[in-house]
Amino acid sequence: xxxxxxxxxxxxxxxxxxxxxxxxxxxxxxxxxxxxxxxxxxxxxxxxxxxxxxxxxxxxxxxxxxxxxxxxxxxxxxxxxxxxxxxxxxxxxxxxxxxxxxxxxxxxxxxxxxxxxxxxxxxxxxxxxxxxxxxxxxxxxxxxxxxxxxxxxxxxxxxxxxxxxxxxxxxxxxxxxxxxxxxxxxxxxxxxxxxxxxxxxxxxxxxxxxxxxxxxxxxxxxxxxxxxxxxxxxxxxxxxxxxxxxxxxxxxxxxxxxxxxxxxxxxxxxxxxxxxxxxxxxxxxxxxxxxxxxxxxxxxxxxxxxxxxxxxxxxxxxxxxxxxxxxxxxxxxxxxxxxxxxxxxxxxxxxxxxxxxxxxxxxxxxxxxxxxxxxxxxxxxxxxxxxxxxxxxxxxxxxxxxxxxxxxxxxxxxxxxxxxxxxxxxxxxxxxxxxxxxxxxxxxxxxxxxxxxxxxxxxxxxxxxxxxxxxx
Amino acid sequence: xxxxxxxxxxxxxxxxxxxxxxxxxxxxxxxxxxxxxxxxxxxxxxxxxxxxxxxxxxxxxxxxxxxxxxxxxxxxxxxxxxxxxxxxxxxxxxxxxxxxxxxxxxxxxxxxxxxxxxxxxxxxxxxxxxxxxxxxxxxxxxxxxxxxxxxxxxxxxxxxxxxxxxxxxxxxxxxxxxxxxxxxxxxxxxxxxxxxxxxxxxxxxxxxxxxxxxxxxxxxxxxxxxxxxxxxxxxxxxxxxxxxxxxxxxxxxxxxxxxxxxxxxxxxxxxxxxxxxxxxxxxxxxxxxxxxxxx
Lengths: 472, 295
Prior knowledge:
Structural class of chain B: mainly alpha
Distance between the termini of chain B: 28 Å
Number of helices of chain B: 7
Shape of chain A: rod-shaped
Oligomer: heterodimer
Structural class of chain A: alpha+beta
Order of helices and strands of chain A: HEEEEHHHHHEEEEEEEHEHHEEEHHH
Low-confidence stretches of chain B: none
């Protein structure tokens, strides 16, 4: 037992308080850092020394710095994020599709009605060229709108395809960062504080990665994390990461997702991705948008077929008086597919409106009479020409609106639910890991007083030395 | 439970944006006057809205068609009344000239009058409305009646008349053909030609025969007149039916898709209050901070 041991204890106490203050300030400064887990120093008594049969304490040391985190909650949070990011894609893109299909903006049904109304109008004066102009103009409006809707949907698909590539690049960036962090955690596991910050950073990356695809992950005994796709392809193992890539699909012209082994050989894993934003992008691109495009194709195809069928039976103003046969003119271009993409008025009609037929008969001089074709055209609007003869045009477009409305609404609701549950989980996580300024301020004061008290030890020891020196 | 600071702000911003979204929506509703702004706001209403808007458009088309038929009704009325007058005049001539007090010369001069009547009837038969011969049947561009040198008249039109839709699956014939008015049942021109010939040849029996024909012609013309009357009133009825229907559709659309302004404004106020309350509570929470006491 010596006075100098008091100084020693005071020195240890000072540095322990300083560490405490440093950890506190680290916490305070990271109060708004995403995914940060607050840290706390763990104090321990130094082992006592035996002096004269007595065990005397030697003061304090900082044993470690712990990170407040609940691995179970983190895992749940990652799973939730997987769902949330997928739902975000759905909600976002259904809203976009809704915008394209919204009658208020595209006026699709309105233009179709105008077209058949124009035939109605022509039926009141079947030889008129002015009214034929009306038929042509309304046909152009209708085809343009249908083409535009197709274009809008197709552009969304292309956008999603580009987004897929971007997301895959992000995944590669994340997995290689995780591999780097794994290395640093392995190397830095001696200095705990440093490793803590790497772990926090890595957790954020894993959360981000979980948002993109479905993964499995676990830690080895050195704290390194191994990440596999849910179907078992390695993405990260220790300090190594494997790359994903996009490859062109020849049949669709869109990207597929591939996993590359170290030799660079790519394996198609598109179908094994089952959740996350990448899955959302794939589902949206290959499923729902195609469904709406094919609905538009059915609509355009049915109109082309029915209108042409009627029109070909008609006699136009250019009818050859010597022939008794109908003119067999197509009103719309004959197509074999891609109806909504290519729907257009035929060249014959476009170049000469006299080729529009309104009559179903000719008189003895070979002149078209009556308005039979115009009436038959107008009545197409009332016929069940869609969904295998069960829906009229209006029923079809209304049900399409209803469908996108319902889907988009459901997607919004699901997203909101996901956000709410995510918020609850985050609240739980923050309850454990989050920084509370009040708490940190209290700690700061605690360490400050401990520091001040320790400095008093110096004064006391100093006084003791002074007294001894004066006694000499 | 521990409340971490960053979460406090995050929840605050999230709630703030939620309320702002609602405020924005209500504001848009008030500005546009519409309750349903996108299909997802109310998918069923939005899709029924499409059907109703189409109904309105088609209705408007039927109204246009009816408006075209209206003047046609007037033209037929004038024309057939004219025919009736001319036939009555012919009948007077026939009655007078059938009498024994008349002689060959008066009958010959009356024959000239009958020729005039035939000519006027041909003119009436060739009445045009715009570019359309109203008595041509389906051949609206061909002159329906030609007067031959021997005062026989040839009909060039068709028996049938074009129809137009005036409602879903309801067609209305756009008028009457020359065949119906002049030729079928009793051929007015043949009767008048008979009268003219009988007058020229001083054939009293022939004149009496023609009188029977004239009576039948007048009967037929009267039937046609009343047909025109019902045609015109039917058009009127349909027109007013369309107008009422338009109003009905407007009402349904409005109740389904338009915003109830009072309700929207009330909602807007409620949301503004909630918005302010949130800001106020945040300001209050801000004060409950240990830093405020560490001075």
